[in-house]
Design a protein that fits this description.
Elements: H1 7-38, H2 40-51, E1 52-57, E2 64-65, E3 71-83, H3 88-98, H4 106-118, E4 124-130, H5 132-140, E5 148-157, H6 165-168, E6 171-173, H7 176-181, E7 192-194, H8 197-201, H9 203-206, E8 211-217, E9 223-226, E10 241-242, H10 247-259, E11 267-271, E12 277-282, H11 297-306, H12 312-315
Helix pairs in contact: 3-4
Length: 316
């Protein structure tokens, strides 16, 4: 009998093989223990980050009232349309499909892509305040539009329109340069901020605190389920402020100015003896409601910014 196949050698090799297999199983069991027990929280956190997408909830801006309590700037329900995408290419593909059902041009697509680049893990805003007809068309074809998110969010409303434009100003999405300069503390890409007038002066008071909810997505980034909003993360409305403005006087002075021939030039200012402003109207004005959800294309912007009858210094 060969020495290599002697009972002693076979038993010795069996023991070595048993130890090797046992050691291998111990390593495997240790790896499972580390992953399933010690690393459970870390892997759970990573899984939640991949499965859940954070969705910011805009806070209702505080009301701006006149001296009698009438709203100069208030809020109305609006529909925000957003898209969840895994990459810029998939985002562009979805927006191209949306063109058939919504007013989307190349300028808007580029703007949405820039928003995605600033916050790639958040839904990219397409319309801050979409018309009901557009929302209905998109909802009917949701199965063709992966990642589509439609939420009811508050939008600013100026019922007096052009009569209060120079006083109240308007709100619009914060720009990247304004974020870099820190002009609006606490703002993030997509936040609506006051750009002029009372909206800008009291922005930190009336902006409120944004809330958040979560959307469950699949491996391709498509929405599976809309998570229930946590009560602890609800948006907090901004403060309500009361001014010295007399809204009725402002509206009537605007009408009177137009009747007296102040159509293209001139303005009216009403103040108390102590210097409190009651009303201010200017013949060259604009409708601040047109800025809700973003200015509608370059054509309207050029019309407002280049026309000598419009107040470029107020809206630029």
């Amino acid at each position: 009998m060969s020495v290599a196949f002697s009972p002693f050698r076979l038993r010795e090799r069996a023991i070595v093989a048993t130890l090797a297999v046992s050691l291998l199983f111990l390593v495997i069991i240790g790896a499972f223990f580390r992953a399933q027990i010690l690393g459970q929280e870390d892997f759970q956190r990573r899984s939640d980050q991949n499965r859940l997408r954070r969705l910011t909830l805009d806070a209702p801006r505080g009301l701006i009232l006149d001296r009698h309590g009438q709203p100069i700037a208030e809020n109305a329900p609006g529909f925000a349309v957003k898209v969840i995408a895994g990459s810029k290419d998939s985002l562009r593909a979805t927006l191209e499909r949306m063109r058939s059902y919504a007013p989307i041009d190349d300028e808007l697509i580029n703007q949405v892509v820039r928003r995605f680049e600033l916050a790639p893990y958040q839904p990219a805003l397409v319309f801050a305040s979409a018309p009901l007809e557009t929302v209905a068309r998109l909802e009917e074809r949701r199965y063709l539009l992966p990642g589509l998110v439609i939420r009811t969010e508050p939008r600013r409303l100026y019922r007096a329109g052009t009569a209060v434009a120079h006083l109240v100003g308007y709100v619009a999405e914060v720009s990247s340069s304004e974020l870099e300069q820190g002009r609006y503390p606490g703002a993030r890409p997509g936040t609506l901020v006051g750009k002029d007038g009372l909206e800008a002066v009291y922005d930190s008071m009336v902006r409120g605190i944004e809330g958040e909810s979560f959307i469950e997505v699949d491996a391709r980034g498509r929405m599976v389920r809309d998570e229930t909003e946590s009560p602890a993360l609800r948006a907090v409305a901004g403060e309500q402020i009361r001014t010295t403005i007399d809204l009725d006087l402002g509206v009537s002075s605007t009408v009177s100015g137009r009747r007296s021939g102040l159509r293209d030039r001139g303005g009216l200012l009403a103040m108390t003896p102590s210097g409190r402003v009651l009303a201010r109207s200017t013949a060259s004005t604009y409708d601040p409601n047109e800025f809700i959800g973003g200015i509608s294309g370059a054509t309207l912007w050029r019309q407002l910014n280049n026309d000598e009858k419009t107040p470029r210094c107020s809206i630029g």
